[in-house]
Amino acid sequence: MKSYLEISDVGISFETEQGSFEALSRVNLRIEKGEFVSLIGHSGCGKSTVLNLVAGLLEPTLGGIILDGREVAGPGPERAMVFQNHALLPWLSVQQNVALAVGQVEPNRRAASERVDYYLSLVQMDHASQKMPHELSGGMKQRVGIARALSLSTKVLLMDEPFGALDALTRAHLQDALMAIQAELGNTVIMITHDVDEAVLLSDRICMMTNGPSATVGEILTVDLPRPRDRVALADDPHYHKLRQQVLRFLYEKQRKVTPLKAAEKVRSKLRA
Questions:
Q1: Mean pLDDT over residues 247-260, rounded?
Q2: Which of 2, 62, 70, 181, by CA, is between 20 and 30 Å from 133?
Q3: pTM to 2 decimals?
């Protein structure tokens, strides 16, 4: 049975001054419609490269990606990216920023206006529709960025550490908002994160990447926690902690990555001398 999104034997190499660099090797991942999948791994393991391949921003050297029965051969409106940096246009209001995206897929002005209002309401930003980006907090800007991505009638939402630059409390609010939005819309979501707790809280499955170069999928963990999820209740849930430990064990035992500080290396060299 075919999956909604199939990443099959994907590899990608880049030419450098030192020769060919293989970033990813034989990546295989099947994602079902409406599923929330997190990619987690150490820096440099190719998480963003996987996301860019699904977005159609990069072309694989080997293998291929099939979305809803069609090969991914470039960017398309059915896939939208949300970055750590909201990337709002500073000279446009909140409403205008979202309307700019909606205009790409909805030519009817009245229908477009209704769509803008709906998605701003969905992310609880309808009260700030006329504000300019400089008047918003970091969390509010990120909500608008999510609304803009969703407004394209996105089938697959691609998120590259969307909450990484936010404080802990704002991040928690947006995680809860994202869970509610996905429950309502049923979008397929692929999210990059370095936060183990975030991955376990939000995901249906967690895809753990091996260290690069030639990074690949190391393990895939099914997060069999019932939805809707309550972060306070999960704090005392032994199964939640067991899942969390499995991810930590993969990252810090099976794929432990130690990068010595250059300063420390210099000190050690002097001591040896």
A1: 80
A2: 181
A3: 0.87
Tokens representing 145? 């960025």
**Can you tell me the distance from the alpha carbon of 225 to that of 210, in angstroms, rounded to the nearest whole number?**
25
Tens digits of per-residue pLDDT, 6-27?
A: 999 999 999 888 888 899 999 9
**Torsion of Cα atoms, 4 then 70 then 78 then 156, to 10°:** 30
Q: 212: which 2 tokens?
A: 């690069």
Residue ranges of domains in the chain, CATH in brackets: 5-75+160-272 (3.40.50.300), 79-154 (no CATH)
